[in-house]
Specification:
Number of helices: 13
Strand content: 15-25%
Radius of gyration: 26 Å
Order of helices and strands: HEHEHHHHEEHHEHEHHEHEEHE
Strand order of the largest sheet: 2-3-1-4-6-5
Structural class: alpha+beta
Shape: elongated
Number of domains: 2
Length: 320
């Protein structure tokens, strides 16, 4: 897939507001692509990400990086002494002691000074360079689907390393480049104070080499899981469509399941999806229909209701 195809998949399935941003750290001796422009003003790395998601393709040498902390973390320049010592974190009242500041700095991912000469950022669809990472601006629900897509072929759970310090530089650029794994950031003091990231947005960074396989997994999830979840198919009781609820009595089980078998399609999805085998398929009048066998095992998860294409199942919880 090319970048334009990838962007269409991610934007269409996730309903992204902002285009993913391609980021590359320019190696010593590499040629600057002709399609990127050096901004006339200095920008923080986080601000350049915001500019790129708005459509700009930028070449950011050290002289255009307004945040020395971020530039040093990404290996463009040496770390200034006051930032290296941790004392500025105390002055900003971000941390209480030098011991805490130095512990945070020691654990922070970074590249040695001189490892890279500049940063390149661009909307993914317009990137004329090979990205190291791609940064997504997301709502939590969209981030959840990207996490699921990343796990789709492996079943592995994710362990993210992040903090409220050095978001787009350390958490979103250096960390995924060093580990080869996606990472999440909720922003940091600088990115929240200096850019227009919304209060309800977060960032997710994906190693560029994984873009296509995650996109293909996202397409698989879009066949069933994503539309079902977004349609809230397990929300009770608005999906109860199988006739009039019966009057509660002490003789009824805690959860009563009513099935309109006359309009049942007999596909058996309700029985297949039931985690406790409450429903089983039996032949009645020459066709398969669901029958309630173990009502006392029903937890009212509403999976059978949500998965029934005909909408003929009702789950009624008794009032104590």
């Amino acid at each position: 897939m090319d970048n334009q195809q990838l962007v269409r998949i991610y934007k269409d399935i996730l309903a992204l507001r902002w285009e993913p941003v391609a980021v590359r750290l320019l190696r010593p001796g590499e040629t600057v692509p002709a399609e990127v422009a050096e901004p006339t003003a200095t920008l923080r790395h986080c601000q350049s990400i915001i500019a790129a998601r708005r459509g700009y393709s930028l070449y950011m040498p050290p002289r255009r990086h307004a945040c020395p902390d971020g530039a040093a973390i990404m290996g463009l320049i040496p770390m200034p002494p006051k930032l290296q010592s941790g004392e500025l974190y105390l002055l900003f009242k971000k941390l209480p002691t030098l011991e805490c500041a130095r512990k945070m700095i020691a654990a922070r991912p970074c590249f040695p000074a001189g490892s890279y000469e500049a940063t390149l950022v661009a909307p993914l669809s317009k990137a004329s360079f090979e990205a190291d990472v791609v940064i997504f601006t997301l709502w939590p629900e969209q981030a959840m689907w990207l996490c699921m897509a990343q796990s789709y072929n492996s079943g592995e759970r994710h362990i993210f390393k992040t903090s409220g310090y050095n978001s787009t530089c350390a958490d979103l650029t250096v960390q995924p480049m060093q580990t080869g794994k996606m990472n999440i950031s909720f922003g940091c003091y600088g990115s929240r104070a200096a850019s227009d990231i919304d209060d309800f947005e977060l960032y997710l960074s994906l190693p560029a080499a994984q873009l296509e396989i995650v996109a293909r997994s996202l397409q698989k999830l879009a066949q069933k899981s994503i539309p079902e979840a977004r349609h809230k198919i397990y929300m009770p009781p608005i999906l109860d469509k199988a006739g009039v609820p019966k009057k509660n009595t002490r003789d009824l089980p805690a959860v009563q399941i009513n099935i309109d078998t006359a309009n049942c399609s007999g596909d058996g999805l309700c029985a297949d999806f039931c985690p406790y085998g409450v429903l089983v398929m039996e032949e009645q009048d020459g066709r398969p229909v669901p029958v309630v066998k173990n009502p006392e095992q029903c937890t009212a998860c509403y999976t059978c209701v949500g998965q029934c294409p005909a909408g003929v199942i009702q789950v009624l919880q008794q009032v104590p």
